[in-house]
What we know:
Low-confidence stretches: none
Number of domains: 1
Number of strands: 0
Shape: elongated
Radius of gyration: 14 Å
Distance between the termini: 5 Å
Helix content: 55-70%
Amino acid sequence: MYSETPYGLPRPTLDDARAAVHRVHAEDGPRVWSHLVRTAGLDGSADTSEGLERMLAAMHDADPISRLCALALRIRVTSHTQLTLLTRELS
């Protein structure tokens, strides 16, 4: 049976990216997030795969802490994608 959350791993969202930025940047989180949203050309409300990709690119090109968050989220996206494909093949 196919699942959108294979092995309990949901695909990361823009909200996950926002939460990560706020968590690691603490009191500067809102300011950093606003800058990243503008840099990515997003309005912060459209939570799509394309929007997440644009945000991850903006985070990657930002400060080292945001870059590390982008890498962690990229690992989750890749893991989700691969597990989803495997689950589809096995069902």
